[in-house]
From TrEMBL:
<dbReference type="Pfam" id="PF04134">
    <property type="entry name" value="DCC1-like"/>
</dbReference>
<dbReference type="GO" id="GO:0015035">
    <property type="term" value="F:protein-disulfide reductase activity"/>
</dbReference>
<protein>
    <submittedName>
        <fullName>Putative DCC family thiol-disulfide oxidoreductase YuxK</fullName>
    </submittedName>
</protein>
<dbReference type="InterPro" id="IPR007263">
    <property type="entry name" value="DCC1-like"/>
</dbReference>
Length: 139
């Protein structure tokens, strides 16, 4: 039987602390693994996707990124966490979650546990947020 996988940026101290919280507090059957140690080809992911957002690859082959991936992870966990995951999938929550997620991704090096290594590479920042740090039209 295949296992679902939640992939995060292992070079980012903030992301690693969040993944540690998941492993300690959220009962999930999913593997929680830094993308640097994951078989990205087998998961159908690219390094660029993994640098930009956390990723979910379900046992059924489904994929999600960012807050949608977090919702999938929560949906694959204990009863209380499943309720939170269901709430995160609601349209109003998603509408708020994506801008919040992008803000966190852009500023993760400034957050508790973050370090300079948490900062997205310049190319990824510009692709996601444009040269002035504002979201690009396609993001």
């Amino acid at each position: 039987m295949k296992t679902s996988t939640f992939v995060y940026d292992g070079d980012c101290a903030f992301c690693t602390r969040c993944a540690g919280f998941v492993e300690r507090r959220i009962p999930t059957g999913a593997r929680v693994v830094p993308w640097q140690f994951a078989d990205l080809d087998a998961l159908g992911l690219t390094p660029a996707e993994c640098e930009e957002a956390v990723q979910w690859v379900g046992a059924d082959g489904s994929r999600a990124a960012g807050p949608d991936a977090i919702a999938k992870l929560l949906g694959d966990s204990g009863p209380l966490w499943r309720v939170a995951g269901a709430g995160l999938r609601l349209a109003p929550a998603r509408a708020l979650a994506w801008p919040a997620y992008r803000w966190v991704a852009r500023n993760r090096h400034r957050l508790p546990g973050g370090t300079a290594a948490c900062s997205l590479p310049q190319e990824a920042r510009e692709r996601l947020y444009g040269p002035a740090g504002r979201p690009s039209a396609g993001a």
